[in-house]
Amino acid sequence: MSDLISIKGGRDGLRMRLDDTAEWTALLSQLEHQLTQNRGFFNGARLTIDVGDRAMSAEQLETILGLMQQHGVSADALAASARESRNAARAAGITARPLPRYPEGSASSAAGPASESDALLLIRTVRSGQVVRHSSHITLIGDVNPGGEVIAGGSVVIWGRMRGFVHAGALGNAEALVCAIELRPTQLRIADQIATGTRGGPHTPEVARIEGGQIVVEPWEASKR
Fold it and tell me: What is the pLDDT of residue 153?
């Protein structure tokens, strides 16, 4: 996302990593920019805030939580190595989690953009009112019913029927794709482009991508030529 903020997916859901060495006002400015620019991805999300070694006061945490709330984002937990930061989390009524210590330069401590290895594989049906949200690619073996939502920072592959809402490249990746065995979404988005009423035949695999500044949909076989 930026040099100061990164988003990762994990077993505990989305994790927002804030640079623990950045100047405070610059960090706040970047956070507001990211929440505004990627509103489609963040709206309604629940996540863990990871502040690393930063010693965060109760007032600073309150500022971040308030900013996130303005953009429809809720924090479930704060991950921090500093006791002061974890105390601020408890005072704010959210879960405080200590951070494991990794050797310097360890891949586990990196906070870079989501990679191919961050891809999410699910085997389930996404029903009306349910939302699947992930920072990287999503592969779903199953159907997305009307009223269900799939939101990904990368591409979305549905091994089944897509009849709900899908947003690929929701963190600004205009090269993301949406593929489905049956592609009939109520709305399809890639990055900041929107398409409605895409018409796919039953059991006709199709792929959607951005070409020439707009979303185009074509049969899967044609897209491979």
Answer: 94
